[in-house]
Amino acid sequence: MARIPVGQRIRKRRQQLALSQSRLAERVGISASYLNLIEHNKRSIGGKLLHRIAAAIDLDSRALVGTEEARLIAELAEIVGDPALAGARLGHDDARDIVATSPLAAHAILALFRAYREARSRTELIGERLGDDSFLAEASNQVLALITTIHSYSEILKDYGDLSEGERRRFVGTLAAESEQLAARAGDLFDFLGGRGGRGARPAPREEIEDFISDRANYFPRLEAAAEEVGSGFGPAGPTVEALTDRLANRHSLAIVRHIGMALPPNGEVFDATTRNFTLSDRLSRRSVRFRLARLLGQIEQRTLLETLVESAGLSSPNAGSQLQRALANYFAGALLMPYEAFRAAAGDLRHDIAQLGTRFDASFEQVGHRLATLRRPSAEGVPMHFMRTDIAGHISKRFSASGLRLPRYGGACPRWIVHHAFATPGRIVSQIVRLPDGDRYLLIAKAELATPGDGPSQAIMVGAGLAHARRFVYADGLDLDAPSVAIPVGVTCRQCPREDCAERAFERIELPIAAPTIGRSA
Amino acid sequence: MLPADQGGRVAKSILVAEDERNLVEALSFLMQRAGYEVHVAHDGPATVEMVRRLAPDLVLLDIMLPGFDGFEVVEAIRRQPGAKPPRIIMLTAKGHEKDRRKASELGVDDYVTKPFSNRDVVERVKALLSS
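^ inputs. structure came back:
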């Protein structure tokens, strides 16, 4: 029978008593170096020496030796009770035999069991997440109901040859309608689960649009050229609200109506093609009005170009198509109000002071931030930046990144990102320097605006760039960019973040591959 | 819904308790063609009420009616005093093992998993109503 290693227990107990190795060794009558060997399990002990040591550290020697063995037996006996081992029908005696014959084997069994249990609880966690997710449960129920109906109706049509014309028409009609519903629901389900395997993923409209824009590096030369041309038609004052209103009226017989009251949709505008009226809530800011007029101008005057671009995107639904059309019209508006070269030069001169850029171009933080992320003209690029917009709950409604920072695709972003904290100081521009788990560092700049009736919900915008460019931003002034304490350790999303010491962790990390068990004599 | 002519015998009656309208139509069609008189209920309370009032021979009961657990409905039906209680076939969803176990614990006469085969449902109904 192998000796049970007790060195560790001796060392622990000695340290508890604040006894030095030399003191204990002296008491026991051995050299300190020999005691050291014992403590590191390089020498086994028994008999009288064991008793003397046990007495010196005030432990029953049986407890000293027996404890570890007894503990091992107890642990092993516990796991034989697990349903997974029910087939093996091991008992307490078997556990004792295993420990007596081979403690190593006992440790191995325990390590394997721990690994299995961890894997099992991770699977349960994922299963729970999937099962609890109300979207998934709801979608599954809907799909099942549709399949049940379709199956039953198909069988009826097949098996009952004597249906009346009316019955047949009714059943076939319902069958067709339910099949269409099924296609849509199943599509939603696959979107959620992330793909159809061989047939490739069918993302949600917003994702499709973000992918398209990202593929084009958020730079659309034809829209830029169109904006320049249209812009040159405005006088030296540029496209002011008045100039835009005049152009819409003179060239397109459109009237701009400022509406008092809350009867407008949440986005604060209504376009009526029949009356040729574009009604805007009177609660909108001047910058918001100006931008919306510019966008409307784009939608009208650049319709063919927009349609061509949308078609080139090859989107999977008309809904995605109309959303993209609006996004591109917004791009045009930004390009019209903040002409490329003038804006890029100003961004450099003003060192990306977004407030000052907003003043110079009469544009909001979001408009300026978004324009900054579009400065990707080859040979005339601005700083590569990212842009993100979230609501107060952290849901991301717009994202683009050229800075290298990965913005989360699903769910919310790391709770430490400044974009969330901006809501605590609405209206103020705040910034931070962050360090990702892989060591990359970024400058993040954010501003939140609380909800204004008629102009949208509470939102925060976050832009930023890699730290290499930080010197070109006023927001990094006065910071020692090289000092490690300046960068806040962050991740991208909790679910994928390896940081183990984060007080803000909101979700357990999902690690699907099962970790190898560590076999050894860990306590 | 008129009972089919069965050579003078009174047709047995079936209550279809299901909130999915399209499914109701399919089940009603199948039961009528099989020669039964069909009644329909779309939620828990209506089901219990119609069992009390009409005393159907069998209830095809969906496990999840609006706001109600099909099991609650079963218990409510069983609690009703007087006339012979109807046979009950529950419609459960695939993949919900514990529903099936609970159904047999409650003494439900049979269950059918969705999506089901029409022939299967009709055969089970016939089996229960011929005895």
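DSSP finds five helices and seven strands in chain B. The first helix of chain B runs from residue 21 to 33.
thumbs up if we can close this ticket
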